[in-house]
């Protein structure tokens, strides 16, 4: 799987008991391009616990993906 040809966004809550941070961090090696955000004082519901940070990180990831898509289309 390390040859995945698309970016992956990882939002990790340091206090997450459902998807433990250590286990999720191991998975961040599966893709070539990763955006990894680790939120302190957050568990599994970042959209409720850290909404401003989540919006900022998702916007940044979306901009990267859009820019990459446009660049790829121009190259074709």
Features of this protein?
47% helix; 76 residues; 2 strands; alpha+beta; single chain; two-stranded parallel ribbon; flat
How many strands appear in the DSSP assignment? 2
Strand content: 15-25%
Major sheet details: 2 strands, parallel
Ranges with pLDDT <50 over ≥5 residues?
Answer: none
Instruction: State mean pLDDT (0 to 100 scale).
Output: 87
Indicate the overall shape.
flat
What is the straight-line distance between the termini?
A: 25 Å
Topology as H/E string? EHEHH
Helix content percent band: 40-55%
Q: Can you give a write-up of this model?
A:
- Helices cover 47% and strands 16% of the residues.
- It has helices at 21-27, 46-49, 51-75, and strands at 8-13, 34-39.
- The chain has a two-stranded parallel ribbon with strand order 1-2.
- Strand 1 (8-13), helix 1 and strand 2 form a beta-alpha-beta unit.
- The chain is flat, with a radius of gyration of 14 Å.
Give me a quick take on this structure.
The chain has 76 residues and is of the alpha+beta class.
List the helices and strands and how they pair.
Layout: E1 8-13, H1 21-27, E2 34-39, H2 46-49, H3 51-75
Parallel strand pairs: 1-2
């Amino acid at each position: 799987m390390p040859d995945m040809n698309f970016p992956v966004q990882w939002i990790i809550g340091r206090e997450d008991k459902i998807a433990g941070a250590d286990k999720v961090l191991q998975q961040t090696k599966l893709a070539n391009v990763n955006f990894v955000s680790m939120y302190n004082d957050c568990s599994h519901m970042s959209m409720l616990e850290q909404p401003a940070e989540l919006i900022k990180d998702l916007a940044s990831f979306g901009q990267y993906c859009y820019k990459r898509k446009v660049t790829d289309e121009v190259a074709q």
